[in-house]
Amino acid sequence: MADKTQEFDYIIVGAGTAGCLLANRLSADPANRVLLIEAGGRDNYHWIHIPVGYLYCIDNPRTDWRFRTEPDVGLNGRSLIYPRGKTLGGCSSINGMLYIRGQARDYDHWAELTGEPAWRWENCLPDFMKHEDHQRLDDGGDADAAHRDYHGHGGEWRVEKQRLKWQVLDDFATAAVEAGIPRTRDFNRGDNEGVDYFEVNQRSGFRWNTSKAFLRGVEARGNLTLWHSSQVETLTFETGSGGEPRCTGVKVTRAGQGGVSARAAREVILSAGAIGSPQLLQLSGIGPAELLAEHDIPPVAELAGVGENLQDHLQIRSVYKVKGAKTLNTLANSLVGKAKIGLEYVLKRSGPMSMAPSQLCAFTRSSEAFEHPNIEYHVQPLSLPAFGQPLHDFPAITASVCNLNPTSRGTVRIKSRDPRQAPAIVPNYLSTPEDRQVAADSLRVTRRIAEQPAFARYQPEEFKPGLEYQTDDELARLAGDIGTTIFHPVGTTKMGRDDDPLAVVDPHLRVRGVAGLRVVDAGIMPTITSGNTNSPTLMIAEKAAGWILAGE
């Protein structure tokens, strides 16, 4: 097997959010021979599909790469787990299932940065709608006329209402309105300001990942080959007719056997994510000159931006003890409560086992200095000391808030030539005065909401961080003590104009200075979207598929 090179037209590295859609679209033409490679196994682990199972998928070697950040100065020296999906469906198999597109201004800004009008909001909206299957557009759905202008139906990517509500969250939403945040029924029309429950990527109470959406039913196509449990070691290159390097394929470890080769007649497409794609580029000789030299990797193309420009959403969790409220803390801290939760899910596919990690959402401004919503809330009817630890033994809610548009920038850099060694992930959270100010101000917004009359019936007590923290400096340092990633890394293979020294790919996502190679994942975002990043990544893949098929 190691001596035989298999031939394809397109090779896609990574069967995650972007890769599954690309495999579907590129293989729709039976003339295209498509290879999809995934380092993880099949998505047949039952906890992938039960929504609350994300608790058992994150930091689990069966489904997660189990990356960790380097100790971060902005987090006062702490290191965080940094989950990335390692299974069919990638991060869509372990994430929060929350359907958020971001704001129109995000995409208009990309168009300005790249000079490519295809990235403007009005030109991205059809790509979102093409694969969407929105529940409110079902027969008997409750869509208004405007909803049909912004949402699609009949596509592969299912969007549904959550199958539960909590009175304590309803009242928190009312308190948010009293604090000046308007109600909304749709976060995805380009201006996401407002408060409401998240919509989720689920179907009838089960997680709807991209493997189900885009591979199920098409994996049997004769022109689509799937190699799972197969890790790409490096890209292969030849000198093109114009003298520039051309990516011709990959070398892979399959079934424990290294050196397996596959060749691409047209393109190799990296969809390994904002961590995996820059790591593979660097291992293959595409990256900052000094990094390649440090590891004695022969340079193929010196691109200073590979692994730079890392951006992420850092959430700051406020926990409020409440009285007289039903929360998951009280329901799940007894055998009887757990039995009721399990029975409800078995019988109705509803209740806490159908929960996304967060239920209530709000977008608003951290201060009047912002003309647009710059913070996002993920509100949950539960609390715990840290992810993966048991719930508190008292009733409580958690209101997590994140800065949507951080100015801090981090890096992803290989530590060795071994593709199995995790790279150094340095987010540099809270490394700018702007980010520290937003952190402090956003905690004050949380307090303002909790103080409103609608929430007073619960006699809320700020358990974490605690009212003793009041000044900007105290709150900013506190954010470093308790802030955690919300798992949205982007930007490490950013797109941009030719005169942008950190641009890794051009506006059509082709790697600069190398023929036959593209990156199609969240790493190409020049700036992070103002919301959760999974569905924008699908939009990017949809747009890229059209360019690839058109040879553009």
Pick out its properties:
2 domains, GMC_OxRtase_C, FAD/NAD-bd_sf, 552 residues, Cholesterol Oxidase, domain 2, oxidoreductase activity, acting on CH-OH group of donors, seven-stranded antiparallel sheet, flavin adenine dinucleotide binding, alpha/beta, single chain, GMC_OxRdtase, 16 helices, seven-stranded mixed sheet, FAD/NAD(P)-binding domain
Parts with pLDDT < 50 across at least 5 consecutive residues: none
Dominant shape:
globular
Task: State the CATH topology of the largest domain.
Answer: FAD/NAD(P)-binding domain
The CATH class of the largest domain is: Alpha Beta
The CATH superfamily name of the largest domain is FAD/NAD(P)-binding domain
Strand content: 15-25%
The gyration radius over C-alpha positions equals 23 Å
Any idea what the CATH architecture of the largest domain is? 3-Layer(bba) Sandwich
**What's the N-to-C terminus distance?**
34 Å
Explain what you see.
With 552 residues, the protein is α/β, with parallel strands linked by helices. The protein folds into two domains: 1-158 and 206-311 and 410-429 and 489-552, 3-Layer(bba) Sandwich (FAD/NAD(P)-binding domain), CATH 3.50.50.60; 163-197 and 314-403 and 430-482, Cholesterol Oxidase, domain 2 (2-Layer Sandwich). 27% of the residues lie in helices and 22% in strands. Strands 1, 2, 11, 12, 13, 14 and 25 form a seven-stranded mixed sheet that branches. Helix 1 (17-26) packs parallel to helix 16 (534-550). The longest helix is centred in the last third of the chain and has 18 residues, at 433-450. It is globular, with a radius of gyration of 23 Å. The relative contact order is 0.18.
